[in-house]
Every structure is written in structure tokens, then in C-alpha cells.
Amino acid sequence: MAKGKTQEDPQTRARSAALRLLARREHSRYELAIKLRQRRLEPEVYEPVLDEFEAEGWLSDERFAEVYTRQRVELGYGPLRILGELQQRGIHWTPEQLVQTSTHQWAERAEQLRARRFGLADIRDDRDEKGRQARFLCRRGFTAEQVQRALEAREE
Q1: What is the CA radius of gyration of the chain?
Q2: Is the separation of the CB atoms in 108 and 141 below 8 Å?
Q3: pTM of this prediction?
């Protein structure tokens, strides 16, 4: 009897899988579609479910982008990396938080990250160390200008 219960209709499977995924964290529509496809559900089955969830307000790309951006900024990532990661998740616009943050503020964040990770020692004459720190900040998604300003910072 229990085995018969596991053969529920695809629409119900899609709905319950999507709800379980959204209960854990925010997802973009694109991410959720990929995860449902990985569960061997067809687009004609899960697309109406995603439409329904968007209409109910349970699924929102705008909300996902805001939450994701805020989390990545708090973890010390720069604007280039955040935008790239959002695009990989199906978000092809710039969230308001990134628009409102000035280049100067991003440079300050890069400097704070450098201070936390390496300290603010004078590295003008140490090309190897300067390169190592610059590569770290670039991998974190800061622009060349922001990295340069962070590398010029010194302890007072």
C-alpha cells in the first residue's frame, strides 16, 4: 500500500519538491527549474507550478536577488563576482543594493577585507605579496581600481 502512495502525479511531485526547496532558502525561478528538471520532471509539469508560486508570492526573483546580494556583500565579495553569480542563477539585472553602493564604498569594503585577511602593512616594495593580495581581492570580485585603492591603504 505504501509503495502505491509514492507514485503520485507529476504535478503534485513538482509542487511538493518546489515547496521543500523554497522552505530551505530563497531560489530564483531559473535555479528552481533546474532542480526540478534534475528530479526528472518535465517543463510542462513544473512551469505552471512555478507560475502559481510567483502569483502567490512564494517565488520572487527580485527577493532572491536582494537576499543573495546582501549575503554575498556581508561575506566580503565584490560587485563583479556578485553580478556574475546572479547571472549564473538567472538574474540578468543589477539589484538595487549594488546600484546604490558607490565605487568609493566598494573600495572601502576591499580595504576592510584586506585588513582582516592580511593586515594593512606597507607592501609597496614587496611585489610578490602585493600580487598575492591583489589576486585575492580580484577573485573576490573587486574591480582593478578598487583593488589598487585597497593595496595603497596603510596602517596609521
Answers
A1: 21
A2: no
A3: 0.87
